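Lab notebook page, bench 4
Experiment: in silico fold of construct C2
Operator: M.H.
Input chain length: 73 residues
Purpose: comparison with the prior construct
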Amino acid sequence: NFTKDYETRIKEIQNQTLKVTTVIEPPYVMLNPNWTNSTDKYMGFCIDILLDLSERLSFAFEIEIVKDEIFGK
């Protein structure tokens, strides 16, 4: 719904856990060879943006790599 204002949208995602599905696609999403926990398992440009947004907007996220490695359907 695009009629909601910015403040309303922010409140809706605060303290939520979002599921993010993606494919491995360097340099945007890559497996971190030195990962120690689920929050640093992936790295890359898109992951950096996601981490920054989650801090600024107070939400958590889980990343799931799609099994067929194909964008959208």
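Observations: Strands lie at 17-22, 30-31, 42-43, 60-65. The two ends are 22 Å apart (CA to CA).
Next step: discuss at group meeting.
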